[in-house]
Amino acid sequence: MENTQENSPSQNPTPADETARQVADNQAPQTAAPADAAAAPQDAPNETEAALAEAQAKIAALQEEFLRTKAETENVRRRGQEDVQKAHKFAIENFAENLLPVLDSLEAALADQSSDLAKVREGVELTLKQLTGALEKGRVVALNPVGEKFDPHRHQAISMVPAEQDPNTVVTVLQKGYVISDRVLRPALVTVAAPK
Fold it and tell me: Residue 69 to residues 3, 72, 78, 185: CA-CA distances in angstroms?
């Protein structure tokens, strides 16, 4: 048995066996290395391509979202401009609707052929009430500042007159003034009490 063991190639290698083993060892890593090297670079490009595809998809989604937002903003701006134009064009519409009954009453008065002065006066008074109501609906209010302190922003003094009132107060109103929502349309023409 000893003889068999000594002749075994693993225990007593011959120079030919050793050369064959070295060649096999040299070839094995070379064969394995290209397989690993090929596998690693293929994984890296796949990961890079996947990341690139994901980034491109995200860019496309963001571009689409940007374009939608831009279009929506443009639509809102355009609608806003149209609303402002309509507001300027039709701002007086409600006021004009309130004045139409006054116009109808005046036309009816002109068409009336009666000579009864009392009826004409009554019709004019009713028409004046209609007009006053229409103005109030349009937030136009008359100024009647008798007895108030003179305010140059709301009153226009015509003259100073001697009066029993405190100095610099409104004595009489010669022509009514009007305001619309606290903005003066026309100042009241007034006389003012002179200093004593």
Answer: 92, 5, 14, 44
